[in-house]
Amino acid sequence: MECSGNFYLHNFKFIKSDHFDDSFLKNGISIYEVIRIENGVPLFLENHLNRLYKSSEISNFSINESYCDFETLTGELITKNNILRGKIKIIVQFNTVNGDKEKNLLIYFTPHYFPTSEECKKGVKTGFCKAIRLNPQVKILNSEARIRANDTIAEKKLFEVILQDNDGFITEGSRSNVFFIKDDELITPPESDVLQGITRLNIIRLCKSENIKLKEKKIHISEISEMDSAFLSGTSLKILPVNNIDSFEFYTQNQVLQKISGLYNKSIEDYINERST
Ligand code: PLP
Fold first, then answer.
1. Which end of the chain is more exposed for a tag (fewer CB within 10 A), N or C?
2. Closest atom of ligand 1 to CA, residue 201
3. What architecture does CATH give domain 4-110?
4. pLDDT tens-place string over residues 141-183
């Protein structure tokens, strides 16, 4: 089931979720965002909207601040469904019907999986997957990389796959960014090669303000055995230790990892408090 809650929004109108229909997304191009809701607050909404506008610009479709008031719409959806914790998906579809260009907007709660405390402590199992996201900075539905990643995840019974390009460089997870830790430094693939994750953005901001060493550089698969620890970052995952990537094992109780995870959780608390008062 893709849509949860009692109501969803289609082109600014509330519709009962029993009638949810997203079959039209098969056509055209759909860009999307997934936003975490905690205490009824959409976390880092402005960052998500900026990325949505950027995705549309790169894809040569224009939506910007004047398109609609996303903040009000998501607020109304939360109130109408009375759901304080979960995930909201915003999809903007650009389509051509009988030669006319049209836009469709869907906003709805979607079932979420937030990692268990056991997964956060012990880390998760991942594996490599050769797949390239052609336009890494655009968050687009139904990409080829998504399909390949889903197959590998199911086949090897993994939590997530780590994407690897044709030259053996690691880019990101299929729905997450990846960070490694060597000594006391965080290392992550460069911005140009990955989706600019909102969680990644916040981790980089926190590293700057807290003087945690961080380097953005290309990481080759041959360097993986030198890394002490690894973690994934994402809206649902937050900061999630990686136990292994295929046969490479990582230490999940790393102090730098625990520090950045604590700082990130605190930044969420602060964000909620600022908007709840
Ligand atoms: N990279 C890819 C390919 C993703 O699909 C996602 C999230 O869906 C991320 C990274 C993490 O982004 P965020 O932190 O905004 O959830």
1. C
2. 14
3. 2-Layer Sandwich (3.30)
4. 867 888 999 999 999 999 999 999 999 999 999 999 999 999 9
Q: For the chain, give every domain's residue range.
A: 4-110, 117-272
> Which is the closest atom of ligand 1 to the Cα of 47?
15
Superfamily assignment of 117-272 in CATH?
Answer: D-amino Acid Aminotransferase, subunit A, domain 2 (3.20.10.10)
Flag whether pLDDT at 277 surpasses 80: no
Q: Which residue among 36, 140, 141, 177 has the greatest number of ligand 1 atoms within 8 angstroms of its CB, and so is best to mutate? A: 177
Asked if the model's pLDDT at residue 69 lies above 70, the reply is yes
Task: Tell me how far the alpha carbon of residue 197 lies from the centroid of ligand 1, in angstroms.
Answer: 5
Query: Does 96 have pLDDT greater than 90?
Result: no
Distance 98 CA to ligand 1 centre (A): 34
Name residue 185's beta-bridge partners. 182, 213
